[in-house]
Design goal:
452 residues; mainly alpha; two-stranded parallel ribbon; 20 helices; globular
Length: 452
């Protein structure tokens, strides 16, 4: 069967549609649009908080989704949205004086590393990942990445408009648990709309607000919603202009070893995300996708490196879209090609990008305070799902120091020009101390300790 030929089916409600099948094109287009809505909120929130261009990120999410589907031979239905795994590393880069070119350069190298891991897994098998990065380790790394971001919310976004932030966070939490079905899965997107409208209403009722913006150290009076750039933007065109730090939106990366080390822990998180995604899709479709695990990891890495080479955002497989597949039982990769095409078209609309980039800081504060906490708690979820036993000293002692170092942003000064801190230092200690504890426990007990 040709890779671009799907068996056309029109099953009864509730019956599954496989990856190599599709509904009639009208329904397929509708499902593709639904996937765009599902990925939309997080895909443009994370570029904003990383200081990159949301429009470029959305366009590359479509391009990279096509790349992923091709590498996986249309067997692993997935949408590649913007990854949150590098947000903490990016914050650390900017705190050390790095600009957007340094950010994308470091992430590009991390993407190449992830692609090489994918090649290794493809030939060596999935068992290699489980031996080097068991769930105890991946859960700890994901946890420290999420919780390390707490100061970013507290110092950057929340102070810009604390009441809008609080109300937006409340809406997001309520929407995620109270809205029915599909609507709860797009709670981030809906909370963005809510926060935007709330900020606009507050401008009309209370007038401008005085707060510190990311562009300067001193409080300034400003409107919550500034749409001055929207009117000037074209309807059709490539993403252009400059970012807040003066770097062009589309730019070449700059590579620094110090900055690369700050984002490499994100590779561990992406490995865990891809493993979970492929296994979840395999469970839903009833297909054995282990032979495609290396391809999926490698494709995500290649996509991240490709997007970053032009100033775009890193990518990852999206759980939001797994939710859509779970609700509809339609796993057709054809729907993802439609979603990718819609995302590319949105990325070619600068006016749309101007609206996205005008998202008020208070809205981002409300959303990130929830999302960053969720990233951290995903680490705990990995532990729970894999029954990690903290009565086992290997897990308890082996992970403890790295988590505190990562969350507390502890720094190890090696030379005047080189240091390890926060997420990078914490991840290194998690991996080294865990395997040291496991090896030591095995040698003293005379048996291999099973540490999940």
């Amino acid at each position: 069967m040709s890779m671009f030929k799907w068996d056309v089916v029109d099953p009864a409600p509730g019956e599954a549609v496989g990856p190599r099948q599709r509904l009639p094109w009208g329904k397929t287009i509708g499902l593709g649009a639904q996937h765009v809505v599902a990925m939309f909120g997080a895909t443009f929130v994370f570029p904003l908080v990383m200081g990159l261009d949301a429009n470029l990120a959305i366009m590359f999410s479509g391009i990279c989704t096509v790349l992923f589907l091709l590498i996986c031979s249309n067997r692993v239905p997935s949408y590649l949205g913007t990854s949150a795994a590098f947000v903490g590393g990016v914050a650390a880069i900017r705190l050390q004086g790095g600009d957007s070119a340094d950010v994308t350069g470091a992430i590009m190298v991390a993407g190449i590393v992830l692609a090489l891991v994918g090649v290794l897994v493809h030939f060596a098998g999935v068992g290699l990942i489980h031996r080097v990065l068991p769930p105890a380790v991946t859960g700890a790394v994901v946890m420290l990445i999420g919780f390390n971001l707490a100061p970013v919310v507290a110092q950057t976004y929340w102070p810009q408009d604390q009441w809008v932030a609080l109300l937006t966070a409340t809406f997001l939490v309520a929407g995620a648990v109270l809205l029915p079905g599909f609507w709860s899965r797009i709670a981030v997107f809906l909370s963005l709309i809510f926060g935007y409208l709330l900020s606009w209403a507050f401008d009309g009722i209370f007038g401008p607000i005085t707060s510190v913006l990311p562009t300067g150290p001193d409080p300034v009076e400003h409107d919550r919603v500034d749409l001055s750039g929207v009117a000037a933007a074209d309807w059709i065109g490539l993403p252009s202009g400059t970012l807040a730090d003066g770097v062009p939106v589309v730019h070449g990366p700059s590579v620094s070893l110090t900055f690369v080390l700050l984002v490499l822990p994100g590779v561990v998180a992406l490995i865990a995300e891809n493993l979970g995604h492929v296994k979840a899709v395999a469970d839903m479709t009833g297909e054995d996708l282990d032979p495609y695990m290396g391809r999926a990891i490698g494709a995500d890495g290649l996509a991240t490196a490709f997007a970053s080479a032009f100033g775009g955002s890193p990518t990852t497989t999206y759980a939001e879209n797994i939710g859509v597949m779970s609700a509809t039982k339609v796993y057709s990769t054809a729907a993802y090609y439609v979603a990718a095409a819609v995302a590319i078209l949105l990325g070619l609309c600068p006016k749309f990008g101007a609206i996205v980039n005008a998202t008020p800081g208070g809205v981002l504060g409300g959303i990130t305070v929830v999302l960053y906490g969720m990233i951290g708690l995903v680490g705990a979820k990995i532990w729970v799902e894999n029954k990690v036993d903290f009565g086992n000293p290997v897990n308890l002692v082996g992970l403890a120091a790295g988590i505190i170092v990562g969350v507390g942003n502890v720094t190890l000064v090696i030379t005047d020009d080189f240091q390890l801190s926060g997420i990078a230092f914490g991840t290194l200690l998690v991996i080294v101390y865990f395997h040291l504890a496991r090896t030591g426990r095995s040698s003293t007990s005379g048996e291999v300790t099973k540490a999940l």
